[in-house]
Specification:
Length: about 400
């Protein structure tokens, strides 16, 4: 059947009205549920709707301001485990509050994001939730401020989850977690185990989430009078492949380290594979920590020490807050806490009984039990308290 014939065979509201013996406006009132009609009339109309398999035009319902209210969840990559858990929180809370949740994965395409937001504005979505870090530039702030103003003018609300705030006065809700503080606490824990040469596998240098985690890494060192070796700060992205590549690069270049802190659990998973491929034991030879506390972190071998981020609660809070505010409400900023989850992948230096990792030589790739034990490093006399997160 051609598209034209399909359209021709599709029932219209006038067809339903003729079948039910009422006017088209009466059918609209019944379907919209916003005007009182008699029980008998409602029964006739709904019977005609079922018999004719009539489906109301979503665009017409949006223009009329009726139908199931919607909200939109916009992110770069829905396959990321942390984003998936946030999306789950958004969807569950939206459903609980009687809203339909629409998801858009942009793959980093700014134009695609703008087009989707404009479509949601035209359809009068109750809220649009933008998720994930971004490059905090004047262009970003100007573009996002325009989005916020545009949505507010249409009775909608912009919510930024983990994105940079726009400054005072913008009609936007900002919901964040203590990103930098979580990294600070994690690195403080690793330092408390006696590690002083910690390899950091970070994200993109222009990415606000990656920047916050790197700031926490540096602050934890400097709070103890330490200055990290710049050569131990490597940058990639937040993927498993990036962690694998950066870890192999560090081993190939002969960088000296006793511990690795990865910017995400996915990066840590890739690094763990590379360490195993090199014949290194975690945490016997090298300690390893991640960030996010996605579910599989506890199933790695060894179970991963990491930072717990309440992603599902972030999603639920984004929905509750957005739907509880008028579009014109000025900028509001909410912050959720994070905490370190200590598992088995980080050990004290004295338990490792080895010098820092230096290269991926054939001897290093041999199983640890088959290699002669190198002399133990002198114990570091620096402070080992976990400290507190920065304000």
């Amino acid at each position: 059947m051609t598209r034209k014939s399909e359209d021709a065979s599709r029932s219209t509201i006038r067809d339903v009205a003729a079948r039910a013996g009422v006017s088209a406006s009466t059918v609209s009132r019944v379907l919209g549920g916003v005007y009182p009609v008699s029980g008998a009339t409602r029964t006739r109309v709904m019977r005609a709707v079922r018999e004719m398999d009539y489906v109301a035009d979503a665009r017409a319902k949006a223009v009329a301001g009726v139908g199931t209210p919607t909200l939109a969840f916009v992110l770069e990559d829905i396959t990321g485990p942390s984003f998936a858990h946030m999306a789950y929180g958004v969807e569950r809370e939206a459903t609980r509050l009687g809203h339909l949740c629409l998801v858009c994965s942009t793959k980093g395409d700014v134009q695609h994001e703008l087009e989707f937001v404009e479509m949601m504005r035209a359809q009068r979505a109750a809220a649009v939730i933008l998720v994930g870090g971004a490059a905090d530039t004047p262009e970003y702030r100007e573009r996002t401020r325009r989005i916020a103003d545009s949505l507010a003018s249409a009775g909608s609300r912009l919510v930024l989850c983990g994105r940079p705030p726009l400054g005072p006065g913008a009609p936007v809700t900002v919901i964040e977690y203590d990103n930098e503080g979580g990294a600070y606490a994690l690195v403080a824990h690793v330092l408390s185990q006696g590690h002083r040469r910690i390899l950091f596998l970070g994200g993109r240098s222009d990415h606000t989430t990656a920047q916050g985690r790197e700031r926490g890494f540096l602050a934890a060192h400097r709070a103890r009078g330490l200055e990290p070796d710049p050569a131990l700060l490597l940058h990639g992205d937040f993927t498993r492949d990036s962690g694998h590549r950066l870890m192999r690069q560090a081993l190939k270049e002969g960088l000296e380290f006793t511990a690795v802190v990865a910017a995400t659990d996915m990066v840590a998973a890739g690094a763990l594979t590379a360490l195993h491929e090199a014949g290194l034991d975690v945490p016997g030879d090298v300690s390893l920590a991640g960030y996010d506390d996605i579910p599989f972190a506890r199933d790695l071998h060894p179970a991963l020490t990491t930072v717990h981020v309440p992603y599902e609660e972030l999603g639920r809070l984004a929905v509750r807050t957005a739907l509880g505010r008028t579009p014109e409400t000025p900028d509001e900023h909410l912050l959720l806490g994070t905490h370190v989850v200590v598992r088995d992948s980080v050990a004290a230096v004295k338990e490792q009984e080895r010098a820092p990792v230096r290269s991926a030589s054939p001897a290093m790739r041999a199983p640890r039990s088959a290699r002669p034990a190198p002399p133990a490093s002198p114990a570091d006399s620096g402070p080992t308290d976990a400290g507190r997160t920065p304000r």
